[in-house]
Design a protein that fits this description.
Layout lengths: L1 E8 L5 E8 L7 E6 L9 H11 L3 E6 L16 H18 L5 E5 L1 H9 L8 E5 L16 H7 L1 E6 L2 E6 H9 L3 H5 L4 E6 L9 H9 L4 E5 L10 H18 L14 E5 L5 E5 L2 E5 L14 H24 L5 E12 L12 E12 L4 H11 L3 H7 L17
Parallel strand pairs: 3-4, 3-5, 5-6, 6-9, 9-10
Antiparallel strand pairs: 1-2, 2-4, 7-8, 11-12, 12-13, 14-15
Amino acid sequence: MSFEKIHFSNQQGNRLAARLDTPTEGTPDAHALFAHCFTCSKDLRAVGAISRALNRQNIAVLRFDFTGLGESEGDFADTNFSSNVDDLVEAADYLADHHEAPRILIGHSLGGAAVLQAAHRIEGSEAVATIGAPYDPEHVTQHLDDSLEEIKSSGEARISLAGRAFTIRKQFLEDLAATKMQETIRTLDRALLISHSPVDQTVGIENAARIFKAAKHPKSFVSLDDAHHLLTDPSDAEYIGVVLGAWARKYVEFSEDETTSAEGEVVTKTGDGFRTEITAGRHRLVGDEPEAVGGTDAGPSPYDLLLSALGTCTGMTLRMYADEKDWPLEEASVRLTHEKVHAEDCEHCETDSGTVERIERDIELTGDLSDEQRERLLEIANKCPVHRTLHSEIEVSSSLTDAVIDPV
């Protein structure tokens, strides 16, 4: 994943901070615009995880801080739900002017209500996805119970949310009360994906039911099972990103150009931590390390990928040979493990000191095969190209190229 830090101005002249996450290589198939939750920021871990999952599916994501939050200028006390919607429209205009209009709008919690409200004003948007969104923006006032009377009587109050202090003014409540969503959702005229956890304690699941009922088709619902409202488990955010990207391909007219690496070339990019984005032709993968060694376990480890290459090559080679011979091979299942062993314990190794790499490969052949056919297929397994590469002399030539610095 590559990223670019950008800024744009809203209607009040405040400079809003944003980040554009883009796929590793080539031109994105589409751009998405992300609206974060109430008093959150673009840098919430869950937002980053969803963006990365979409990047791997060749979808760029613009995420930004609403006025007065995160790195954006302005006074949060002067904002309200309507101004958040205005900020979204300004962000969409920036994308349209500098890249392409966002075709996918994504909103988390109150941000979900905001993208529903903003969709009519964002030309080119084709799909809207909400995550734990309230049906009625006024739902936010449930978090202000202890301060509501003070806000109404004094005009404002200082409240604490998630350990941070914010000033909420009376105009914020009045704006929420004036916002009605039923007609907005009924006339959305865009594909809608609603993601919600049935155990969400912040925004109840009944909100998803009301949104779904009010919306017209095409509409879809995805249960987030036991996910926390803020998606504190990275696997929940990853799941949303994967499902959202697959869903969008059904309803969004993606660009014809797809991200590819050159033929026969694999490109990897490793940023913070061990997580690595992999591009092989038009395919996008991710590699990582287990949490036990400092990774996030977002993908196979390098040795897992190596074993995958050998197993895949083995199965393909057996398939091709059996088809050529018209043998009744139904399936070839290959199970592989890797370990380092002492050379003195390796019966067939030339080296007699130190350690050697050992790969155990168990092959299960399903089908009405004779003993002779099974033995021959075992011989053929040892002739797969990756197997032969691993047993041959390999030269790896490395060089440095100039890095491309992301503009700030």
